[in-house]
Design brief:
Elements (H helix, E strand, L loop, with lengths): L10 E3 L10 E6 L10 H15 L4 E6 L4 H13 L2 E6 L12 H8 L3 E4 L5 H14 L4 E3 L10 H22 L5 E6 L3 H12 L5 E6 L5 H18 L6 H6 E4 L12 H14 L8 H15 L5 E6 L3 H11 L2
Parallel strand pairs: 2-10, 3-4, 3-6, 4-5, 7-8, 7-10, 8-9
Antiparallel strand pairs: 1-2
Helix pairs in contact: 1-2, 1-5, 2-3, 5-6, 5-7, 6-7, 9-10
């Protein structure tokens, strides 16, 4: 069941983004991974599931808010292999104005039990989740490591270290080396995996994460650095100095922070869908693409090959359509 999910995703020419500065664009379509509406969380979710099963666990504790792409994918993966899944959620109904996001609808349809909590009660609620499952005779696996959410960063990072093998093979067929890579950055796992994977593959591309979170610049960069180091430590190695030379995180384009609507982002989402039928969402990919275009212009980048990693989130695009129809 697990292996066929990771089929190769297209590297699509995106000439509708080409600009007067002579930059040429490609989109890595990980939104087309053939499981649970695709996205980067399919690769990451598989890494967590494989680690869970390897450790002999028969239940998984997941964490996120009611819009979480990762929780949607993990819920579906657990259902597909028949293991129990329990979600710790910090997003109450009033936080979304009574609207039930598409991701939550799917999570509930898959039979996942949800433990809601305040943001200052996450560790206690993770403890409760462990107790609940243990009382049911289950051996539980928490995706983020210990009760404080630490200790398992390298597992998520490994997903995009592996994905870079595929990406570099596709780049070789272009006869046009990619000079800049952009992606959305939330927890930092995808960005860290890209940076490490491209570094290991001796790519000279600069990798930039566009932060979509509300974290401060210092806190966001610390999370990325921790994730990078965790993967190299899991390999028994230190981080190569050249990796830091090719890795950037930009927090200036988060447009108010996680989930905050932005007019220019929505205008770009609408434009891209009209000209290419590629869905972007206002939380992750829309902000990341808007930030990429603004960043390239601000830095004066010209005559370069640019890759945008489409990390999925199509159900979040559906949410915007549903809200607009209300």
């Amino acid at each position: 069941m697990i292996e066929p999910i990771l089929t190769k995703t297209p590297l699509q020419r995106a000439d509708f983004l080409d600009n007067a500065a002579g930059n040429r664009f490609w989109i890595k379509r990980d939104d087309l991974l053939p499981f649970s509406f695709g996205g980067n969380k399919v690769r990451i979710g598989l890494a967590f599931l494989e680690d869970c099963l390897k450790k002999g666990c028969d239940a998984m504790i997941i964490y996120g808010d009611r819009r979480s792409n990762l929780c949607r994918v993990l819920s579906a993966l657990c259902a597909s292999v028949g293991i129990e899944c329990l979600m710790v959620s910090t997003d109450a109904e009033e936080d979304t104005g009574g609207f039930m996001p598409m991701n939550e609808r799917m999570i509930r349809t898959l039979g996942v039990r949800i433990l809601s909590c305040a943001k200052d009660r996450i560790a206690d609620t993770v403890d409760e989740a462990f107790r609940t499952l243990e009382e049911e005779g289950k051996k539980a696996y928490y995706i983020y490591g210990n009760r404080l959410g630490e200790g398992n960063e390298h597992t998520a990072v490994s997903a995009y270290v592996k994905a870079c093998t595929e990406l570099l093979e596709q780049e070789a067929l272009l006869n046009a080396p990619i000079q800049y890579v952009y992606t959305a950055c939330g927890t930092g796992s995808t960005l860290s995996g890209l940076a490490a994977g491209l570094c290991e593959g001796r790519s000279e591309a600069q990798v930039t994460g566009i932060s979509i979170s509300s974290r401060s610049d210092e806190r966001a960069k610390m999370c990325v650095e921790k994730a990078v180091r965790s993967w190299y430590e899991s390999q028994g190695r230190g981080v190569p100095e050249r990796l830091w030379e090719h890795l950037r995180l930009e927090t200036r384009y988060n447009c108010g922070g996680y989930g905050v609507p932005d007019r220019r982002v929505q205008e770009l989402i609408d434009h891209v869908f009209r000209v290419s039928s590629i869905p972007l969402d206002p939380t992750y990919t829309g902000k990341a693409m808007r930030g990429m275009l603004d960043d390239l212009e601000r830095r004066g980048v010209r005559d370069s090959n640019v890759l945008f990693l489409h990390t999925g989130g199509t159900p979040l695009y559906f949410d915007t359509l549903a809200r607009d129809s209300e």
